[in-house]
Amino acid sequence: MGPMLQTILTVLLLLMLLLIVIFLFFLFKPWRFFFSPRFLSSIKGELERPLFVGDEGDASSFNQCNELPRDYDLEGACYPSEVHFRSPRTHGQGLVHKQRLQTLNMPQPHAGDTLVVDVISDHSSEDLDVGQTLKLPSSHLAQIQKHAPPNFQNDRLEDFVQRDISDQRSCLTLEVISGPSRGLRYSVESTNPSRLPLTLGRVSPSDLLMKDSEVSGKHAMINWNLDKMKWELVDMGSLNGTLLNSKPINHQDTGSRNWGNPMNLTNGDIITLGTTSKVMVHITSQTQHHIPFGVGMASDPMAMRRGGKKFTMEDVCYYQWPLPGLDQFGIFGICDGHGGDGAAKSASKLFPEVIASILSDSLKRERVLSLCDASDVLREAFSQTEAHMNNYYEGCTATVLLVWTDGDENFFAQCANVGDSTCIMSVNGKQIKMSEDHKLTNYSERLRIEETGEPLKDEETRLYGINLARMLGDKFLKQQDSRFSSEPYISQVVHIDQASNAFAILASDGLWDVISVKKAIQLVLQMRERCYSENTAEKTASLLLNEAKTLRTKDNTSVIFLDFDTLNRFSCKVES
Q1: Residue range 70-95: average pLDDT?
Q2: Which pLDDT value is given to residue 559?
Q3: How confident is the model at residue 120 (pLDDT cuts 50, 70, 90)?
Q4: In this predicted structure, what is the pLDDT of residue 254?
Q5: How far is CA 203 from CA 176, 207, 216, 263, 353, in A?
Q6: What's the average model confidence in pLDDT over 426-431?
Q7: Whether the Cβ atoms of residue 332 and residue 112 lie closer than 8 Å to each other
Q8: How many other CB atoms sit within 10 Å of the CB of residue 410?
Q9: Whole-angstrom Cα distance, residue 6 to residue 262?
Q10: I need a surface site. Which of 2, 103, 366, 460 has the fewest CB within 10 A?
Q11: In the chain, where are the structural domains located?
Q12: pLDDT tens-digit map of 442-478
């Protein structure tokens, strides 16, 4: 027993000694001595470099910081303007990093505005890391400094760069003016890299799909050159060639299928594919478009849960005037999400694109203008938007007001909706309800459900926990119960002339839960009596929102106010 006991004691002592060594190792952290101060200072210096520098690398750091809320474009629910930063050395096709930036001097947004800052780069060989310097070419910096004020300071250069890039936004519209696909139109903006480059060809997935046997499957391509701030056309090795203003731009050896050289496009150019298909080029600067009536937007999560925490913001309000390539049309909409904000975000992004695509058909567009009725367009837009949405467990209401002009100071408005986000108008003092509530408590909705052959019980006010029978998204529920629908209610067309003193209010149910239509109209009229200025529409939207807050609404609230009154009409720039 003696030798065995001795062995056990030895093992225990060794274990204790090992534990003491480990304890001392973590206590004194000896690995910190492996990094020299010079190494640490070099890391710190790299992280503190400014976002943009010139070739000399001597740009001053910013002294003021304006913190931008993350993803405020849709959580805040309103986004009339977006600002995109892209590396001037690339075409900005790949999203590398998106984050909140705290070192940019940005102009203060107005109420209801949203600022979205995207840092995007597309290096052919490597991606940028967070903190890596984005370097502007010296030629671009020199050009900016040339047009800068005399007392322009280096520490304001980045702010000027931001405005310079945002002011160069361009909208390209292609219109087929001859050939089998005559009347076809396609529009794209220079600030939408997800849709660039665009291709012209005979087979899918060409963006401008030409039904012409002389057009190659992939015939030509158009892209936005960020360095030159120009649209460029290139022949993709087509068999029958490409002409720009009657001059060939394809490769000299047509049989080699080699690409031609990029050629700059200007407004009014004519692109000929083969011999018969001709495409007219329309290029406009987005900053040239002005809204011919007042627009104000405001939103707030509002509701307080137990414990004082706000509800998640699931409303999204949006507008676009004019629609790309359609100077006479614009849309204004509100989506109120449930189960999350995913469906509302998706629908608000899709509607402008879908409606613009439908109206790009010259026959459908002319039918709307001649008949003064867009019912078919709105119905098709809701059908296509629902088909493109992939939200199985999230849904949303959708109220869309389509406004167009005949070019003679007359406007027309027509609304379509599913759910309970309401639109009302006042024209010549007459109140007009432009939408229909689709709650299960409404008689008309219960009657529609009864016609499906599965009527609701008298005391039944919800289906699967939802008080709405019509919405976008919620694909899983629609698979379970056919009584759910995405078929919209479509209003009559309202004619608005110069003397009609008209206005419109679109709002989610957070407003209408506490404010009647009559009270809302009274508030608008009171504001008109007190205030006649450029931002009257914004003040009116804020007034309605604040009134709902005062009355302690219990739901997210979003408001869009349109002022067609000629006394209040003003112009404002809208960049989308």
Answers
A1: 34
A2: 95
A3: very low
A4: 67
A5: 16, 9, 8, 23, 21
A6: 94
A7: no
A8: 14
A9: 88
A10: 2
A11: 168-283, 292-561
A12: 999 999 998 888 888 888 889 888 999 999 999 999 9
Q: What is the pLDDT of residue 428?
A: 93
CATH for 292-561, options being 3.40.50.460, 3.40.47.40, 1.10.3720.10, 3.60.40.10: 3.60.40.10
Neighbours of 466 (CB within 10 A): 16
C-alpha count within 13 angstroms, C-beta hemisphere, residue 231: 28
DSSP 460-474: ---BTTBSBSB-EE-
Average pLDDT over the chain, rounded to an integer: 77
User: In degrees rounded to 5, what are phi and psi of residue 358?
Assistant: -65, -45
Amino acid at 280: M
At position 257, the amino acid (one-letter code) is R
| CA separation for the pair 216, 211 (Å, rounded) | 10
- Asked whether the beta carbons of 559 and 541 are under 8 A apart, the reply is yes
pTM of the model: 0.55
**Residue 45 has which token pair?**
């210096």
CA distance 212 to 209: 9
Q: What is the torsion angle, in degrees rounded to the nearest 10, for the CA atoms of residue 13, residue 17, residue 20 and residue 21?
A: -170
Q: Is the pLDDT of residue 512 over 90?
A: yes
Residue 37: which H helix or E strand, with range?
helix 37-47
- For 325-343, what is the mean pLDDT? 93
Nearby residues of 485 by Cβ (< 8 Å), 6 or more positions away:
418, 448, 469, 470, 478
**Rounded average pLDDT over 316-330:** 91
Query: And the tokens for 205?
Result: 């997935």
Instruction: Please state, in angstroms and rounded to a whole number, the distance separating the CA atoms of residues 334 and 486.
Output: 16
pLDDT tier for residue 70 given thresholds of 50, 70 and 90: very low
Strand partners of residue 276? none
- Antiparallel, parallel or unpaired: β 247-248 and 263-265: unpaired
Report the pLDDT value the prediction gives residue 93, as an integer from 0 to 100: 33
Cβ–Cβ < 8 Å for 366, 360: no
Q: d(Cα 459, Cα 554) in Å, to the nearest integer?
A: 24
Name which of 330, 252, 340 is nearest 289 in CA terms: 330
CA distance linking residue 489 with residue 434, whole number of Å:
9
Is the model's pLDDT at 225 over the cut of 70?
yes
Report which of 370, 354, 398 is spatially closest to residue 490, judged by C-alpha positions.
398
Domain 168-283 listed as CATH 2.60.200.20? yes
What integer pLDDT is reported at residue 252 of this predicted model?
79
Tokens at residue 237, please? 């090795």
- The torsion of the CA quartet 374, 540, 319, 424, rounded to 10 degrees, works out to -30
Provide the CA 257 distance to its chain's centre, in angstroms.
38
